[in-house]
Every structure is written in C-alpha cells, then in structure tokens.
Specification:
2 domains; 3 strands; 109 residues; 50% helix; mainly alpha; globular
C-alpha cells in the first residue's frame, strides 16, 4: 500500500513550508494530493516522488523549449526557476518576465 503523508511530512520531503503546499493546492500547481475530508489532506509518497522527478532539470536547457511553454506545468516550472534565479525579489518580478526568459510569445502577468 502507498504510504500517506500529512502536509507537514510532505512539506519536509519537498523542502518547503506547509503553507507553501497549501498555496500550491489552491492554485493546482503542486504535487497531487488526496482530500479525505474538508480538513484532512494527504499526499502519496510515490506521487510526490513522481512530481519531483518531473521537475528535474539537468542543464537548464529546457527553459527555452517551446513545447514546455505551452503546457501549464512547463510554464509553472519555468516561472519558479526564473523567480529562484532572481533571488528574494523573485515573487514580485515574476510579473515582469520577458519572452526570452520564458520562451513564450507573451510575458506572464
């Protein structure tokens, strides 16, 4: 049977705060989760591992790949990558991303 993790355990595994996972759940961009009840959320260990594997970047060459920019997952990974490169002001500057950074025909707002 798959091991189920609570949000604190899942956050520790992904190396983010539990509130970050909560935000990702609301936006639909984090790892897949199970909602057992209104207040009970769990994550499957294998789902988190698969989600992390999908975000693995070997050399950064996929940031300009047009096929990634067309999908929501690819775009989310690109935005997070650019924000991380921009440092602590990344969240604010994500709104001003340029075409060259994303490889998309228009900037993200």
């Amino acid at each position: 049977m798959n091991e189920l993790l609570d949000p604190k355990q899942a956050a520790k595994l992904v190396n983010v705060q539990p509130r970050t996972l909560e935000g990702w759940r609301r936006r639909g961009c984090g790892p897949p989760f199970l909602r057992l009840s209104v207040r009970s959320v769990r994550y499957r260990l294998e789902d988190i591992e698969r989600w992390l594997d999908q975000r693995r970047v070997v050399d950064g060459s996929d940031l300009g790949d047009q096929s990634n920019s067309s999908s929501a997952r690819g775009l989310t990974a690109q935005v997070l990558s650019v924000a991380a490169r921009r440092g602590r002001h990344g969240a604010r500057s994500v709104r001003r991303l340029t075409e060259s950074e994303l490889g998309s025909p228009r900037p993200v707002k």
